Amino acid sequence: MGRKRMGIPNLIDSTLDIAAFVATFYELIGGKLRTIGPALEVYLDDNTAKKLDGPWAREQTLLFVFKDEDLLNNTGAELVTMGSYRLHYIIQQLLSRGQFTQVAISPDAIDKSKVITAQRYYKLGSNLIYQPYLAITFSIVFQGNRRWEELHSVCINRVTGSVSSFNWKQLLPYLQKFSAKEAALLEKAQCSLKHSYQALEKEIIMQVAACDQSWSKEALERLAKEQSDLVDFFDQLTTEEGWKNPEAIAEIKQSKALRLKEQEERFAPRVLIRPWQIALITVPVQITSYLQVRGKTETKVELISTPFSNQLR
Amino acid sequence: MEIIITTPLLRGVGGPKRFTTDPKDDYNFYQVVQTPETKELPFPILIYQSGYKEFRQTLRKNTADSWEWFSLAQWAQELSLQSTHHKLLALEHLRDIWRRSGVQYYQHQLETATRVIYELHGRAILADEVGLGKTIEAGLILKEYLLRKQVRRVLILTPASLCRQWQQELRDKFDILAWVARKKWDWSTHNLIISSLDFAKQPTNQQYLLKHKYDLIIIDEAHKLKNERTKNWQLVNALSSKYLLLLTATPVQNNLKELYNLITLLKPGQLGTYREFKKRYVVSERQPKNSEALRHLLSEVMIRNRRSDVNINLPKRIIHSIAVELSSGERALYQGVTNFLRDKTRRLGFEIGLPLITLQREVCSSPMAVAYTLAKMHQKAEPNDQVSLFALLEKAVAITTPTKAQTCLELIKSHQDKVIIFTEYRATLQYLLQFLSQAGLTVVGFDGSLSAGRKQWTCHLFQHNAQVMVSTESGGEGLNFQFCNAMINYDLPWNPMRLEQRIGRIHRLGQTRDVHIYNLSTQGTIENHLLNLLHEKINMFNLVIGELEALFGTQEGSFESQLYQAIIQARDENELEANFENLGQELLLKRKEWAENAWESLI
Predict the structure, then answer these.
(1) ∠ CA(B215), CA(B217), CA(B219), 5° rounding?
(2) Which residues of chain B does A276 touch, with a Cβ-Cβ cutoff of 8 Å?
């Protein structure tokens, strides 16, 4: 069973690895893990069990398997699959929390290979500061004749106000607890939280507006066809019924409006955006100063390196 | 070290709630974004209104989670967002639940659910033959939509006797918590709600339903919506929902208009106006034309799986006809009732005689059943009749142990396993409960007068404690007793569709053993003639459901009235036999016509 190292799960290649997910969860809450063949044994002491399940819980040992066929050789084991009680339980536990964090990115995340090596550039020195960022992962629901949901992360530098996409997965190995060391080197934010939040909302809206729209065209075509069929039917019905029973016309009209509205609910494309996770991030900024010499002119330039970019200033 | 299986414990106490809907999916929490970028878009963008407010609250509480927890939550969300193309998420989610609860699913059920979601876009008639698992299909579709968050508010309309069963099946087989509506405020407090059509039709409830939209409405036993003039049809037509599932094994019972009415509820215009439909597709009430075109249109809204198509081999039905020889006292009673009936008919005409046939049927069931009716008639009768009725009543009460009950007891003892007994009459049911209990058997009784809770409890007792259940017809609709493989028809209903409903309770998916159907018939009575007609003449117990409908119609009373006519018009035994023979010939002819030109071939 491929278990992952505790703490920073690798989201890139293991999102479907339920065994690794379960192991990481129990390790995170303080369980003691042991693999027995294909099975995973988890021991929760009294405190951990109480933390997880409330005051009635007591010390317990759980045994999990992840494939049907492993149940036979592991008496008393619980099968954990998509939709199983256990996985649902873990997911609910995680989703009920884990919506907000404060975290620092290690300076190791900065790509150190980006240095100016050209002749006429002379390195003067470098210093490290930290800048406050706000990052939000938005849940975006695309709804038309089918529906799907995606997560998109964007962040804002609260000093400069610059907004960009944010890739959590790339930064996972470099995340660490925000400590006094970073706090001492932290620049003051120039953008308020409200302004930053609104800027990220605006950014995500622009990203959605710029995305491929073929899905919505498909949904609109379907809607148009369904509604046109409905209109034809009700018009015909009005012609047939109306002359013998004028009172029926009002009913037909009402029915027509109801069914048209239903079709709209079913097929009309729309996008729903909601913030799902929010993080206050302290991002390292490496400022390296160079002296550029051109003939008799000397200019001081700075290479600003962050985990996201390298820029000359 | 002790291994603790915590699943059942946690379910009861500290575990997470079962699958419910996320309130943040409600459109009311969103507002439309209006910016220059969104103006030109072919779709609106809606943004969650309270995002910043909630974020500020979190900051104020200073409850930041650890980074590890945060990242694992992201992993959890990615797991729960897994999307599949043209596959059912529900299947993977239900694998463990079905394994634990022993649910066996079939390929046709998965295919049906997939088609409804991907091709029919959530509006369909599920018209599988009885016992092929329409409820499982509907449950799968519901679960799938819930997992995909495409539905939030769900309404299930079903006959009252099936509300609890739906609730239980959704809970046990699909891990879905639904609420049975009993009070008017239930509508507004629950997103997943089950109600009987009758309850939904009550003015205050109807008022609520008409004002509020549902994402998905499921209607079980949807043949109750076949007539557009009924309140049932009109209520459903006035409801609003994105998705609609109509479940019925009999989309056509008497004529093609019924099919038209159902489809019009589902997708108005699919078959044009009724005038157009008749012109294009109908030759006569049951005979379609332009079948190929009509079949195509129907396939866009209806799915019908037949036993013969889905490669399911249900266990055999073994039919036992048990002739019961009446004792002299019983024979005298039957003869007395027959003479009384014929005398009344001769003197007062058919119209007076017709209702009296019930007396004959009751004698065939038990002396107790007829005694109850005779006593009531005696109180209201004219002096002349009072004498005859009293004499009959005396004969009835003199019979202490009917031969049929004795035969029934012997059958149960020889079967040595669970048995369900069906009778038409409550008096017979009460007597059997007493008689079988005295014989040392564990018996429970089930009839329409029980409250929903008692019905549920009685079914539970039958499954886990009792050997015998005695039930009236009300036990015949919708309930499942696959754990039992023997049924005694203590008396025969005169509507063969109801007989098929009875058998369907034990002869259905999930039944693993051969099913024994014991039909008790009293020799030399109308019951005997009826059984001969159904079993010997037309082999009713082996007909497929479509054939049964064609022969007997499902319209209550149509075949029964033919039987009444056959009996009432006979002046003696020979005439009675000849009338039944003619009836048999008519049925055989109908069967031939059905085979040659059936609406069934359309779908």
Answers:
(1) 175
(2) 77
Residue of A nearest to B273 (CA): A237
Q: What is the ipTM of this complex?
A: 0.84
- Angle at the Cα of B150 (from B149 to B152), degrees rounded to 5? 75
Q: Which chain A residues have a beta carbon less than 8 Å from that of B297?
A: none
How is residue B405 annotated by DSSP? H
Residue B8 contacts A, CB cutoff 8 Å: no
Note whether B522 and B364 are within 8 A (CB): yes
Note whether B273 and A233 are within 8 A (CB). yes
Asked whether the whole model's pTM tops 0.90, one would answer: no
CA-wise closest residue to B215 among B243, B178, B239:
B243
DSSP string spanning B413-430? HHH-S-EEEE-S-HHHHH
pLDDT 10s digit of each residue in chain A, 313 long?
Answer: 333 332 323 333 333 488 999 999 999 999 999 998 889 999 999 999 988 888 888 999 999 998 888 888 888 888 888 777 788 889 888 888 888 999 999 988 888 776 666 667 788 888 999 999 999 999 999 988 888 888 899 999 999 999 998 888 888 888 888 888 888 889 999 999 999 999 999 999 999 999 888 999 999 999 999 999 999 999 999 988 877 787 888 889 999 999 999 999 889 999 999 999 999 999 999 998 888 888 788 888 888 888 888 887 7
Structure-token pair, residue B584:
């048999």
DSSP secondary-structure letter at B182?
-
Residues of A in contact with B6 (CB under 8 A): 60, 62, 78
Say yes or no for a CB contact (<8 Å) between B272 and A236. Answer: yes
Length of chain A: 313
